[in-house]
Specification:
CATH superfamily of one domain: Alpha/Beta hydrolase fold, catalytic domain
CATH class of one domain: Alpha Beta
Structural class: alpha/beta
CATH architecture of one domain: 3-Layer(aba) Sandwich
Number of helices: 18
Number of strands: 10
CATH topology of one domain: Rossmann fold
Oligomer: single chain
Radius of gyration: 23 Å
Order of helices and strands: HEEEEHHEHHEHEHHHHHHHHHEHEHHE
Strand order of the largest sheet: 1-2-3-5-4-6-7-8-9-10
C-alpha cells in the first residue's frame, strides 16, 4: 500500500510538470514491402584501399574516401578509417568479414584491435576481419560539437532547464559540423559499407553486427539485398521500434517502444534468483526476500543520499551491472551496504536517472528515428511508465530527449520495409536476459526480416561480447564458413555464470 501511494504521488507530480512547446511530428507511412529500392551508391567511385601495417599485431590500415552525399557522388568526400586483420590461412580463405561493434558512436578500428584476437581460430583462419570507423565517428571525419554544455535540470523537477540543456547539444553540433550533420544516418553508413565491400574485392558482403550494428546490418540487408552473403546480428534492436514504431507506438520514444524497462526488470529479477541460489557465502545480498530488500534500499534513497549514493546513481550502478553478469557480485555488495535497519516508506523521485549520450551517438540516432517532438507528451508518458515499471520506467522515456528539436534531417535515411528477399537467412543471436536489446526485440526483428533464425545464449548481459559462449561462436563460424544456419530456437550455454 505504501508503494502504491508513492507511485500515485509520482504520477501526479510528473503529470503536472511543464515543458516548452514544440511542434508535434506526424508519423510517416511505412513503405510497402515491394517498394522500389531507395538510393544506393549512385555510381560513386569504389575506394582504392592502400593497406599498410599499423598498430602492430599484424593489423593493416587504409583510408576509404566516400561521398558526403550520395545524391552528389562526385562531390565532397569523407575519409573513412579502415582496419583489417588478414586471414591466417590464406590458402583456405573464404573472404572478408566486416564487423560493426555497436554504438552508434563506437569506433571500429579500436574495437577490432581489442576484440579481433579473441575470435575463434577457425574464423580468423578463413576470413580477413575488417572494421571501420563509421562516418562522423573516431577517425572518419568525427562530428564536431564544440562547447557542448553539460546536462542540467530534471525532467520531473525542473523541466524547462532540462529541455533547454537537451536541445543545446544539437545546436552545438549544428554550429560545429555544418552540412555533415545531415548526412550521418545509418543508411549512409550502409552505403559506405557497400563501397567498402567493393573496395575489398568482394562480390557479396559478410557482416557481423553487435547492438547498434544490428540496425546497420538490417539497413544494409534491405538497401542491398542482392549483395549480402551472410549476416549475424548479435544483441538485436527491433528494427521497426528503432525507426518508426509499430502502428499505435509512433508517439513513444525508441526505448519505450523497445520496452527496455521490462528487460531490465527481468534481468534484475534474474540477479535476485541467482543471488538467492548462491547463498550468502557467494552473494553478499543473499538472505530473505530479495525483492523486498531491494524495495527497501530504493525507498531509503528516495529520501536522500546515503554515503553519496542517490536514486539516480544507484540505477546507473545497476545499469552497468546488468550489462555483464560478472559484475553481479560487486552489485550485491553495494546493495547489501544500503539495506536500512528499519522499514522506510518511499517518497516521490524528483531526480531520476536520465541517460545522456555522446554527440556521435546523437548525430546518428536523431536522424534514424522518428520521435515524438512535444516535450509535454514525455511528461505524460513518464507518469504512465513510472506506474508500469517503478524502478526502470522513467529512464527510457527521456533517453532520447536530446533528439527533440534536433537541427538536422537526412532525407536519404531508411525507414523500411525490412523484408526484402535475400539469398540466405540471417542469423540472430540473443542473450536470455539482455538489458539493452531484449530477446523480444530479436524475435520481433526475425519476423520483420522474414528470414531471421533466432538462437539464444542462456546468460545475462549485452551481446555475446559480454556473455561469451564457445558453442554459439562455433555455430556462428560454421554459418559464415558454409552458410549452415543452426535451427531456430537453439539454446547455447554461456562460458561464465554469476557467483561461481
Amino acid at each position: 500500500m505504501r508503494l502504491r501511494s508513492a507511485l500515485a504521488a509520482l504520477v501526479l507530480l510528473v503529470a503536472g510538470c511543464s515543458a516548452p512547446a514544440a511542434q508535434t511530428q506526424t508519423p510517416q507511412a511505412l513503405p510497402a514491402p515491394d517498394a522500389p529500392l531507395p538510393l544506393g551508391t549512385n555510381g560513386a567511385a569504389v575506394p582504392e584501399l592502400d593497406w599498410a601495417p599499423c598498430h602492430g599485431g599484424g593489423f593493416q590500415c587504409a583510408t576509404a574516401p566516400v561521398p558526403l552525399s550520395y545524391r552528389d557522388p562526385g562531390g565532397a568526400k569523407l575519409n573513412l578509417s579502415v582496419i583489417r586483420m588478414p586471414a591466417t590461412d590464406p590458402a583456405h580463405r573464404v573472404g572478408s568479414l566486416v564487423i560493426n561493434f555497436g554504438g552508434p558512436g563506437t569506433d571500429g578500428v579500436g574495437e577490432l584491435m581489442r576484440f579481433g584476437p579473441r575470435y575463434p581460430e577457425e574464423l580468423r583462419a578463413k576470413f580477413d576481419l575488417v572494421s571501420f570507423d563509421p562516418r562522423g565517428i573516431g577517425g572518419s571525419a568525427p562530428v564536431q560539437c564544440p562547447g557542448t554544455p553539460p546536462a542540467a535540470g530534471s525532467p520531473l523537477r525542473d523541466s524547462a532547464a532540462f529541455w533547454a540543456a537537451s536541445a543545446a547539444v544539437g545546436k552545438s553540433c549544428a554550429a560545429g559540423a555544418g552540412a555533415e550533420l545531415s548526412h550521418l544516418s545509418t543508411a549512409n553508413v550502409a552505403r559506405d559499407m557497400d563501397l567498402l565491400r567493393q573496395g575489398l574485392g568482394e562480390q557479396q558482403l559478410n557482416f557481423y553486427g553487435y547492438s547498434y550494428g544490428t540496425y546497420l546490418g538490417g539497413t544494409y540487408a534491405n538497401l542491398f539485398p542482392g549483395k549480402l552473403r551472410a549476416m549475424v546480428l548479435d544483441g538485436t534492436l527491433d528494427l521497426v521500434a528503432n525507426s518508426t514504431g509499430q502502428p499505435g507506438q509512433q508517439n513513444k520514444p525508441v526505448d519505450v517502444r523497445a520496452d527496455v524497462a521490462t528487460a531490465q526488470q527481468q534481468e534484475l529479477e534474474a540477479f535476485f534468483a541467482a543471488c538467492s541460489a548462491a547463498g550468502p557465502d557467494k552473494c553478499a545480498f543473499a538472505g530473505g526476500d530479495l525483492k523486498q530488500k531491494f524495495a527497501s534500499v530504493y525507498a531509503r534513497l528516495t529520501h536522500g543520499p546515503v554515503g553519496g549514493m542517490t536514486v539516480a546513481s544507484l540505477m546507473e550502478t545497476i545499469d552497468r551491472a546488468l550489462y555483464q553478469s560478472a559484475r553481479w557480485p560487486r552489485l550485491a555488495k553495494t546493495l547489501a551496504g544500503l539495506v536500512p535497519s528499519s522499514p522506510v516508506s518511499p517518497a516521490p523521485v524528483l531526480d531520476p536517472r536520465v541517460p545522456t549520450h555522446s554527440p556521435g551517438f546523437l548525430a546518428v540516432q536523431c536522424l534514424d528515428s522518428e520521435l515524438p517532438q512535444d516535450p509535454a507528451a514525455y511528461a505524460e508518458l513518464a507518469a504512465a511508465e513510472a506506474k508500469r515499471q517503478p524502478y526502470f520506467g522513467i529512464a527510457p522515456v527521456f533517453s532520447m530527449a536530446q533528439c527533440v528539436g534536433w537541427p538536422a534531417r537526412d532525407e536519404d535515411r531508411y525507414l523500411g520495409p525490412w523484408n526484402r528477399p535475400r539469398q540466405h537467412p540471417i542469423l540472430i543471436l540473443a542473450n536470455r536476459n539482455d538489458p539493452v536489446t531484449p530477446l523480444a526485440n530479436a524475435q520481433a526483428t526475425a519476423r520483420e526480416l522474414g528470414d531471421g533464425h533466432v538462437v539464444v545464449v542462456d546468460g545475462a548481459g549485452h551481446t555475446t561480447l559480454d556473455v561469451p559462449s564457445t558453442a554459439a561462436s562455433a555455430a556462428t563460424t560454421r554459418y559464415f564458413a558454409d552458410l549452415t544456419a543452426p535451427a531456430d530456437g537453439t539454446v547455447y550455454p554461456p562460458e561464465v555464470r554469476p557467483f561461481p
